[in-house]
Specification:
180 residues, Rossmann fold, 21% strand, binds pyrazine-2-carboxylic acid
């Protein structure tokens, strides 16, 4: 059993948002197409309080209930079976979707018999990486869909380094066209 995980495909991480990932919106169509091929689709949302230690490191973004925290408007979010909110505590960065507090992602996947998890979304070098590493450590066969993720790349080479770190922890890489 496989599931698709969409990480943080929210307005604030897309062009025009407060922590925009360059071309972050360009993956939306690919993610929409992928959703059609999966029986189970889950998504994380960064969902921060107005004041949090996280905003000492990053510009204010994805504050719970704001427009910036909404999914990108072109994402077919009606195809998402369950949403997991993370970073909800004022002491918690919540990079990984497995740190979600609204529901337990690991338990949800186990309860649904998921063995293989395919990751898409933003950003490759932060929340996708953290989520993929957690997924792999928890024993899921973990795939990152290379053409359905985008990185922040604060420093040149950050994305390449993130891919190496994930690969070293048995995360595998695939293209959306290879997924039927
Ligand atoms: C993210 C930086 C700060 C992400 C979240 O979703 O990758 N990056 N907060």
């Amino acid at each position: 059993m496989r599931a698709l995980l969409i990480v943080d495909l929210q307005n604030d991480f897309c062009p025009g948002g407060s922590l925009a990932v360059e071309d972050g919106d360009k993956i939306v169509m690919t993610v929409n197409q992928l959703m059609e091929r999966f029986d189970l689709v889950v998504a994380s949302k960064d969902w921060h309080p107005m004041e949090t230690v996280h905003f000492e490191k990053w510009p204010v973004h994805c504050v719970a209930g704001t427009e910036g925290a909404e999914f990108h408007p072109e994402l077919n979010s009606t195809n998402i079976d369950k949403i997991f909110l993370k970073g909800t505590d004022n002491k918690d960065d919540g990079y990984s979707a497995f740190e979600a507090t609204s529901a337990d992602l690991n338990q949800f996947l186990i309860d649904n018999g998921v063995t293989d998890l395919y990751l898409t979304g933003l950003a490759t070098d932060y929340c996708v990486k953290a989520s993929a590493i957690d997924a792999s450590k928890k024993g899921f066969n973990t795939w990152v869909v290379n053409d359905a993720v985008k990185g922040v790349e604060l420093k040149t080479g950050d994305v390449a380094k993130a891919l190496d770190e994930m690969g070293a922890l048995s995360v595998r890489f695939i293209l959306s066209e290879e997924i039927s």
